Amino acid sequence: MAERSVRWGILATGGIAAAFAADLVDLPDAEIVAVASRRPEPARAFAERFGAERAYGDWESLAADADVDVVYVATPHSAHRAAAGLCLAAGRNVLCEKAFTLNAREAAELVALAAEHDRFLMEAMWMYCNPLIRRLKALVEDGAIGEVRTVQADFGLAGPFPPAHRLRDPALGGGALLDLGVYPVSFAQLLLGEPDGVAAHAVLSAEGVDLQTGALLSWASGALASVHCSIVGGTAVTASVTGSRGRIDIPAGFFHPDRFVLHRDGRDPEEFAAGPADGPRTTLRHEAVEVMRALRAGETQSPLVPLEGTLAVMRTLDAIRDRVGVRYPGDTGVPRLTPA
């Protein structure tokens, strides 16, 4: 791709779409050219707000827009398979919000579609693109804390969310796990890969979604990860990685940190902080920059957020839901998993 502005389409007009669009506007080599919603009114309002040329009241028109280099899919995750699949089949590149899909089967279908049409596809796991998370991963891989023994991470919101809220609706993939738990699981797997064993317990709502879930992931190496998510209690939202020769602690907001502390045996603690060039900790621009870099390089996936890693996370989320008994309408045809 020539060194010109990358032309973005935004599919959906909710809060995360607005946050992403606001960061795109600040990037000199990005341009929002089209917006789509299921109704024309919110699409037009969003387009006017962010300076997009075209507003569509249906997804198909955006998918067919040949002026769009890449589509950012920001619907609820229950619609990711349909929305991202439509765009890929029409020849668009796609950045799709997380959780990537409702289940691993849908995720595999999207990956297969991207390969069939030779299109770029990436999960919008902004944590993986964060400069400090990348630095932390490099330190762990370089042996700064020795062999990883345990990972701990949590993400909980106080709520309460009423029964009509999307987080309580099984048809929308409701519950704590896919909305919040995807972060602790993804953090653990960033450092350790796909687990060999999964055990989990949850408290379910009357609708059948998980109000809070705790899982213990295990690896053949002997490493363990304890992950927790909740929509009925505000947790510390911290993470810690313990190795055979030290520990790394990430304070509140671990998935978009502005600092972390490295503790190494026999040394004073070292704090690693975000630099001025990293921008505010809430920025989504790092994942946008990575998408545009990959497109210009002719890549069909990002080394920072590889598709096999996304599939592995979805398999773990499936396994956790299987253990705790959460099933979605979109799970038809998903095989039951044998408890670890």
Query: Helix-strand pattern, N to C?
Result: EHEHEHEHEHEHHEHEEEEEEEHH
Global Rg? 20 Å
Uncertain parts: 334-340
N-C termini distance: 46 Å
How many H/I helices? 10
Q: Strand content of the residues, in percent?
A: 15-25%
Total strand segments: 14
Spatial arrangement of strands, main beta sheet:
8-9-10-7-11-12-13-14
Helix content: 25-40%
**What sort of overall outline do the alpha carbons produce when their principal axes are compared?**
globular
Mean pLDDT metric = 95
Largest sheet data:
8 strands, mixed
Class of secondary structure makeup: alpha/beta
Can you put this structure into words, describing what you see?
It is a single chain. With 340 residues, the chain is α/β, with parallel strands linked by helices. Helices cover 33% and strands 24% of the residues. It is built from 10 helices and 14 strands. The protein has helices at residues 15-25, 40-50, 59-63, 80-89, 104-116, 126-129, 131-141, 176-192, 285-296, 307-324; strands at 6-11, 30-36, 54-56, 70-73, 93-96, 121-123, 148-156, 197-204, 210-218, 224-230, 239-243, 246-250, 259-264, 270-273. The strands form 2 sheets. The chain has an 8-stranded mixed sheet with strand order 8-9-10-7-11-12-13-14, covered by helices on one side. A 6-stranded parallel sheet has the order 3-2-1-4-5-6, sandwiched between helices. Helix 4 (80-89) runs parallel beside helix 5 (104-116), helix 5 (104-116) runs antiparallel to helix 10 and helix 8 crosses helix 10 (307-324). The longest helix is centred in the last third of the chain and has 18 residues, at 307-324. The radius of gyration is 20 Å and the shape is globular. The model is unreliable at 334-340 (pLDDT under 50).
